[in-house]
Write a structure and sequence with these properties.
By secondary structure, the protein is mainly α. Helix content is 64%, strand content 3%. It contains 17 helices and 3 strands. Helix 17 links the parallel strand 1 and strand 2.
Length: 493
């Protein structure tokens, strides 16, 4: 078991390693590097204004240590190591809850390969989210001591629950959506417990949801205290949803399909591609089979229990993003929701395997292994083709222009900003996969300054060595000495 845990820890480094050590940054990465160096405290204040003060502190410290574009590889490596720790911890907890050895290892591996995990591994400033995910898993481990399943004797007291709530609060103050991975472990426990009485299951689930809610409320209280004391000004992004029915329909049509697609990626310009649609259909088909086996095993009550747990934990896993006013179905907010559905898919495969006791379990484990293998290949390819390579092409174009700057002549540099359709990536999803970074003046300014800082490391602020302008429209040639055309990346630079 220790060997498998070690392998799961190493797996993300194998899958994402080639992307991690490419030379590139992504959008906010460049500004974060400069602010950590030139404006101490700003990153912490800005993220605290969004309810993520610990995220801000961790990111500011790590970005200051990274210092340069090359150093961004270190931030991405931290995210990958965090995913490795997450996979190992999930595996050990799944085994503790009675999951079969290979199935628990494969499920833990899958949760480090989803598109949500790929964002954490491939975007430097997202690495603290891995810390929040690990804390969410740790919180369940603590709460489990004080709240064992109904058929098991209690071995701890309320102190374990309080500790768990505190850990969830810390995870929430890093990244609100990540601590909700706690719900994934709840799903893993309940998927296997077919014989518990329905009322006992509901009471046990409710108590754990209270622990989760208490942690979220503690984090909210800390955030409100920061606002009320004037230490931090609240961001306009801190707002609650008011149109609940509309938000529910939006979540079902825009968010849930991304979670159901598991390892398949959505696409912004064309809508959900055929492969993702097929993956959603396959997921629903497997779940339908799993539900049918539950009904055959425990009647309508057994099937109803299974379905109620799935829907309840899905709601819990997406609760923070559902309550928030923003409607932005990014993968970095979907980790816990995708994890809950992944658990039920694995549980459904185990249900199906149980129908043929001799060969069924091995056949279903093999099917899950093939699926995880496909996920690993996709994660490796997408981290390269949709993050590292297109962002490296953008950086190379900026570096090519920066090499022409002559400080003695105060070169006039104009950056022609790109459009999202200028991406060199084979596909794009929102501001994550395959997106263009230099589509705004502020990003162009920050990227050029970061490149010039590496060229002239002795300069505290290299922006005085040149005159900068940027925009989406090309000015007259007499208005610039150096043109950096970011739209060239579509032809590979």
């Amino acid at each position: 078991m220790l060997a498998l845990a070690t392998l799961l820890f190493v797996l993300p480094s194998i899958v994402y390693g080639s992307a991690v050590f490419h030379r590139y940054g992504m959008r906010d990465d460049y500004a974060i590097l400069r602010e950590a160096r030139e404006d101490p405290g700003k990153i912490t204040r800005v993220l605290a204004s969004q309810g993520r003060p610990i995220y801000g502190w961790i990111l500011e410290w790590s970005a200051h240590a990274a210092n340069t574009i090359e150093g961004l590889s270190g931030l991405r490596l931290l995210g990958v190591l965090g995913l490795g720790l997450l996979g190992a911890a999930l595996f050990l907890l799944l085994r503790r809850e009675g999951w079969p050895l290979l199935t628990s290892a494969l499920l833990a591996a899958l949760l480090t390969l989803t598109p949500s995990a790929q964002v954490i591994a491939s975007w430097g400033i997202c690495w603290p989210q891995a810390v929040a995910l690990v804390l969410g898993v740790a919180a369940f481990g603590l709460a489990r001591r004080g709240l064992p399943p109904p058929s098991e004797p209690a071995t701890g007291g309320v102190g374990w629950r309080i500790a768990a709530a505190c850990v969830i609060a810390v995870a929430t103050l890093i990244y609100q959506a990540s601590g909700l991975v706690y719900a994934v472990l709840l799903a893993a426990v309940l998927v296997l417990r077919h014989d518990d009485r329905f009322p006992d299951t509901l009471r046990w689930l409710l108590r754990h949801l209270i622990v989760m809610g208490a942690g979220l409320l503690m984090a909210f209280a800390v955030t409100k205290t920061l606002f009320l004391t004037g230490l931090v000004a609240p961001s306009p992004r801190i707002a609650f949803e008011t149109h609940w029915v509309d938000k529910t329909l939006w979540a079902i049509t825009h968010v849930l399909p991304n979670a159901l697609a598991l390892i398949a990626l959505n696409d912004t310009p064309t809508g959900m591609p055929r492969g993702s649609e097929l993956m959603v259909a396959a997921t629903l088909g497997v779940l339908a089979v799993g539900l049918a086996v539950e009904v055959r095993r425990g009647g309508l009550r057994g099937g109803g229990r299974w379905l109620l747990v799935l829907l309840t934990l899905s709601a819990a896993a997406y609760s923070v993003s559902f309550l928030a006013f923003e409607r932005w179905p990014t993968y970095r907010t979907l980790y816990a929701l995708t994890g809950v559905w992944s658990v039920f898919v694995a549980g459904s495969l185990m249900n199906l395997g149980s129908c043929w006791p001799r060969r069924g379990p091995w056949a279903m484990t093999g099917a899950l292994a093939l699926f995880v293998g496909a996920g690993a290949l996709l994660a490796h390819r997408q981290s390269l083709e949709l993050f590292a390579l297109p962002q490296a092409r953008e950086l190379a174009l900026m570096e090519q222009g920066a090499r022409q700057v002559e400080p003695a002549k105060q070169s006039r540099v104009f950056v022609l900003t790109a459009r999202q359709t200028d991406t060199s990536a084979p596909r794009r999803y929102l501001d994550e996969f395959g997106s263009v970074s230099v589509d705004a003046e502020w990003v162009a300014k920050e990227m050029l300054k970061a490149v010039m800082k590496e060229r002239f490391p002795q300069e505290r602020d290299p922006s005085h060595l040149y005159r900068f302008a940027a925009g989406p429209n090309l000015p007259e040639p007499r208005n610039y000495d150096i043109l950096i055309d970011m739209r060239k990346m579509r032809q590979g630079g």
